[in-house]
Amino acid sequence: MAEEKVFVNSGDLRIEGLLEDLSGDRGVVITHPHPLYGGEMHNPVVEALVQAFGEAGYTTLRFNFRGVGESEGEYDGGRGEQEDVKAALRLLEGLGKSHVFLAGYSFGAWVNFMGLDKYENVRGLVMISPPVGLLDFKGSLFGSKVKLVITGSNDDIAEPEGVRERVMNWNSEAVLRVIEGADHFYWGKAHAIKESIKEYLENE
Q1: 65 secondary structure, DSSP code
Q2: Neighbouring residues of 162: CB distance < 8 A, sequence distance ≥ 6
Q3: Which end of the chain is more exposed for a tag (fewer CB within 10 A), N or C?
Q4: Which 3 state secondary structure label does DSSP give 121?
Q5: From the centroid of its chain, how far is CA 31?
Q6: How far apart are CA 45 and CA 68, in angstroms?
Q7: Looking at the domain 4-202, which fold is it?
Q8: What angle do CA 155, 147, 48 make, to 5 degrees?
Q9: Tens digits of residue pLDDT in 134-146
Q10: Rounded CA gap, 73 and 139, in Å?
């Protein structure tokens, strides 16, 4: 199968996405980096997430946050973007997906984390380079849903020690992977993200 273009309604806005609907009850919503710095759903790290989850048999839905690509609206500092995530989750729920992950890269990981109290049926969170050096990851009662966190050894926005400290506070049983030689953009390292996710999902 291949991804098909879809639109979901986030309030009054139409949000553009790409969906690959596989059989079974497993699914994932995938979110992209910061819209004000060129982040969008065709980012190479987002592509790696799509491939990893798809090869593991998960229905994948990636989308452009409001104001990006063909998605209506404008950047909303993470608040409206959480509503976009909710809209994407509703689409998967409507397809009968009950075993659902959220996976996000950088800003997308932050939006997913900050909205966890709104995403009651999410099984777990996969976070790629959560930008702990730039954005405030306030305490969450749902931090236990963080399952896998990946960052690069040279990532100065998601610096490994700062990420490790927060992961221990969120969920001491979460898996942390540090990709040697990778910075925040993972040039030439996207395959390592893919392999880390596939390894985790095989044991999930």
Answers
A1: P
A2: 132, 133
A3: N
A4: coil
A5: 4
A6: 17
A7: Rossmann fold (3.40.50)
A8: 55
A9: 999 986 678 899 9
A10: 29
